[in-house]
Structure formats: structure tokens, C-alpha cells
Amino acid sequence: MYTEYDGEIIIKSRPLLIFFINTVVFFGIYIILGMFFADTIGDALCMTIAVSISTILSAVAIKDEIKDCFKRLEFKQFIVWVVGGYLLFFIVEPFVIAPIIEHVFNLQPETTNNELVTQITSTSPIIYFIAFSFLMPIREELVYRYSLIGTGDSFLILRVLFSSGLFAYMHLAGGPMIYGVYYLFFALILAFIYEHSDGNILYPIALHIVNNFIALLIS
Q: pTM for the complete prediction?
């Protein structure tokens, strides 16, 4: 009885552990590397190393769950969710959200975060391309979907709204609050796919990677 109960406690604590790794540990490593090595290896590599370490630690911590996610992955469903989710955002973002922001709020449809990412990427193209296209999406899905939404039906709507709202706010990069609508809509798509794939984190990770990869290629 104790072993089963103890195992249940460990499983329930994993989202908190993953959140800790991808926030406190990530920023701690990034800050320390920046203090001592930013002038020699550059800020881009410091960030890439930090997110790589946090991603590896996360993978080790939930390796059994990741294996289970791969076992439960249905290829056709996976393609439908990822492609469908991207096409939905690809259509709504420029044809619905952007015109509203431009004509109703008299703002440029290009968000502050996108402009910042484009500027940063130009300084170290290869390193930042890897970081923003692959590593950061994995980290963000582990934080906002796996950790903050988690599993179970208790307060699900509140968890989704809190996670998506925080995701949107953290992507404002100092820009107007209305720009958060872009990221809120994308976060809700990711949350919807996460929930309808029975908590398989591989689905939103794949969609997030596809979105970032194409966005950086276009920019």
C-alpha cells in the first residue's frame, strides 16, 4: 500500500518538478552563464545551453511518461492535430486578429515579441534558430501545458485560462496588451490539442515547433 501511495505522490509532484526545472533552474543557469561567459561565448549560446540543460533534466525526470506518450501516439491523429492546429492559427491570425488590431486599435499587426525575436536571431542566426525553433517550444510546453494544465478534470477550464493567459502575457515583450490576443489564441489551440490527445505532450510540442520553425523561416 505504501509503495503504491508513494508512487502516486511522485507522479503528482512531477509537474511541479518540471515547472521548477524550466523556470528556476533555467533562469539560474542562464544568469550564471551570462555573468561569467556572455562576453566570450555570447548571450545566444548561454541561453541555448541553459534551455538544453533544463530540457535534458526534464526528459530524465519524466522519461517514463515520455515513453508512454510515444506509445500512445497515433500517426494519423498526430498529423491531423498538428497540421490542423497550425492551419487554424495560420488563417485566423492574419485574416481575423491582425485586421482587428490594425484597424480597431490603430497598431501595427507585427507584435513586439516577433520584432524582438527577429532582431535577436539576426545576431546569431544558427544558434538562435535552433533555440527558438526547437528548444524553447519544448520548454514552454513543459511549463504551460504539462505543468500548469496537467491532467484531470478538476478546475480544467480555470487551469487552461490561467496557463494560456500567462503564456500570452510572457510573450508581450513590453508591447501593448492587445498583442497578447495572438498568443492567447495560439495557447488555447495548444491546450485544446493537449487535452484532446489525452495529455500527450508530444502533440502540442510538435505544433509549437512547426509554428516557430515556419515563423522564423518567413521572417
A: 0.92
